[in-house]
Amino acid sequence: MRCVDVAALFASAFKYVNPDIRLMAFDTEVRQLSNLSKVQEYLKRKNLMKQPNLEIDIFALAKKFANMCGGGTDYSKPLALLVKEKAKVDMVIYFSDNESWADQIPRAHRQTGMMHYWKQLKQLNPDAKLVCVDLQPYATTQLPEHKDVMNIGGFSDNVFKLIESFANNEMHVNHWISEIENIDLTQIQSHVS
User: Fold this and answer.
1) What's the pTM value of the predicted model, to 2 decimals?
2) What is the pLDDT of residues 30-72, one digit of tens each?
3) CA separation, residue 61 to residues 7, 14, 115 (Å)
4) Is the Cα dihedral 124, 95, 12, 146 positive or negative?
5) Which of 46, 47, 102, 126 could bond 72 through an S-S bridge, CB–CB 3.0 to 4.6 Å?
6) Spatial separation of the C-alpha atoms in residues 115 and 139, rounded to whole Å
7) CATH number at residue 48
8) CA angle at 32 for the pair 129 and 138, rounded to the nearest 5°
């Protein structure tokens, strides 16, 4: 399974539950999928919906969304567009392999394109939060953890719970450190023996 397929499935699940959210597929450009009724009409025309009066088919939407992009990756493109539009946002969620190599921010600025545009978006939306779900976690991130930035490595159903906790201010910068410190190693040892 490709990262774009996993990202599209997660995005489609969010769109299904929250029809008013804005979806943006990206590679070196941004492609938007924001109007659910237009998506439903498209899927009906292509006979991808099982029955025309039922809710949208998440898997068909994910397939369409995944096919919207390919090629290089500029992780900052969606944020740059939001800044350009002076968009009002409360949370931005990325699902990606986190490997951005095509951004146009000179490295002399000692920041990724993502950092550059997140700072600008935060000036417009001081309470906004950012979640970066790295579908294939490596040693690097586009943005370090912060009270308004959460990085998640890997994917499972728990991603939805983590995002919800973060959105509800139930997590903090040192959340994972405290979670690890709360592990009772004696319990683990007894299961291993």
Assistant:
1) 0.73
2) 887 655 555 556 656 666 545 544 455 777 777 776 777 777 7
3) 12, 11, 30
4) negative
5) 102
6) 17
7) 3.40.50.410
8) 55
